[in-house]
Amino acid sequence: MSSQLINGKEISNTIRTGIQKEVQDLIAKGITPGLAVILVGEDPASHTYVANKEKACKELGIYSKLIKLPEDTTEEDLLAQIKQLNEASEIDGILVQLPLPKQINEQKVIETISPLKDVDGFHPNSVGKMLLGQETFLPCTPHGIMKLLEYSNIEVAGKHAVVIGRSHIVGVPMGQLLLQHDATVTYCHSKTKNLQEMTKQADILVVAIGRAKMITADYIKEGAAVIDVGMNRDENNHLCGDVDFDSVVEKTSAITPVPGGVGPMTITMLMYNTVQSAKTKLA
Ligand SMILES: NC(=O)C1=CN([C@@H]2O[C@H](COP(=O)(O)OP(=O)(O)OC[C@H]3O[C@@H](n4cnc5c(N)ncnc54)[C@H](OP(=O)(O)O)[C@@H]3O)[C@@H](O)[C@H]2O)C=CC1
Ligand SMILES: Nc1nc(=O)c2c([nH]1)NC[C@@H]1CN(c3ccc(C(=O)N[C@@H](CCC(=O)O)C(=O)O)cc3)C=[N+]21
């Protein structure tokens, strides 16, 4: 079967062109959208993501403020920083890069970010609204994946979507968005028995596990669309997904690569949320 390669980079660029236009319109009205990113510690992978976010801001004309804090930052200091940004008029979105060092309570940090600037969509306020189908900031990775499906003309309604992973940042919201678009959704996780039996029923398989190349051809139904969220390093220290691309590609009708699939879309939807937030300043 010939498989459609879902080009996240290209779809990202298409969407970013629209966002760039919106930024220009806002700037013409005296509003420059602003994103603050807080990075605690020295995780090298985090630095790459943060660099990609800064680059995207620059390209689109969004003001970006990077706040780097040392690994041993106290929770108190971090919360004080967030409160300042909540008040800062030039900042429309606040992202605290996760995971955080162990001395810091992640949930408390997320809840301290103003829901009005919660461009990650991780605040309980945003999560609740998402579940209810109300307008809010949607989590960037699942939202980006919905856009990938839409732009690739992959129909969701009536399909069986299987999501592997139930993290609050990817798996759980992913299943909810698919459900809202009328898929029949199954969640799988580390306690799932007979994972292959589950995934072999998937018309759409979203994989967000964090284990390099774990998903091989044996997990795939012929003709499935496969979305790979994983960001791992393989034995040669090359970036790779959770899906063993070479093994599964022949069986799929559509598949995302890593890199160049989901990752760029995450950043694009972050830019989108930041601009949406800035637009609330329009009279
Ligand atoms: N491209 C992008 O934009 C992004 C990529 N990522 C990447 O996506 C991956 C997942 O991220 P995230 O959701 O934060 O990860 P988490 O580690 O928070 O969650 C992993 C999930 O996978 C499940 N899991 C672990 N092992 C297995 C297994 N053997 N079989 C079935 N399920 C399993 C876990 O189950 P349980 O709940 O039972 O522990 C958990 O629900 C990572 O590689 C991350 O780097 C993340 C965010 C954005
Ligand atoms: N508060 C918070 N929000 C996040 O959204 C968040 C986070 N914390 N912590 C880490 C994960 C991971 N993540 C990625 C973003 C972009 C790429 C990305 O740009 N990937 C590119 C290139 C990657 C590269 O070259 O290293 C690609 O896949 O093509 C990947 C992963 C956001 N996350």
From TrEMBL:
Pfam families for the chain: THF_DHG_CYH, THF_DHG_CYH_C
Keywords of this entry: Amino-acid biosynthesis, Histidine biosynthesis, Hydrolase, Methionine biosynthesis, Multifunctional enzyme, NADP, One-carbon metabolism, Oxidoreductase, Purine biosynthesis
Pathway: One-carbon metabolism; tetrahydrofolate interconversion
Molecular function GO labels: methenyltetrahydrofolate cyclohydrolase activity; methylenetetrahydrofolate dehydrogenase (NADP+) activity
Record-listed E.C. numbers: 1.5.1.5, 3.5.4.9
PROSITE patterns per UniProt: THF_DHG_CYH_2 (PS00767)
Swiss-Prot/TrEMBL catalytic activity: (6R)-5,10-methenyltetrahydrofolate + H2O = (6R)-10-formyltetrahydrofolate + H(+); (6R)-5,10-methylene-5,6,7,8-tetrahydrofolate + NADP(+) = (6R)-5,10-methenyltetrahydrofolate + NADPH
Domain Tetrahydrofolate dehydrogenase/cyclohydrolase NAD(P)-binding residues, every copy: 139-281
Residue positions binding NADP(+): G165, R166, S167
Keyword Amino-acid biosynthesis: yes
Function comment: Catalyzes the oxidation of 5,10-methylenetetrahydrofolate to 5,10-methenyltetrahydrofolate and then the hydrolysis of 5,10-methenyltetrahydrofolate to 10-formyltetrahydrofolate.
Family: Belongs to the tetrahydrofolate dehydrogenase/cyclohydrolase family.
Subunit structure: Homodimer.
Protein name: Bifunctional protein FolD
Organism: Kurthia gibsonii
Taxonomic classification: Bacteria, Bacillati, Bacillota, Bacilli, Bacillales
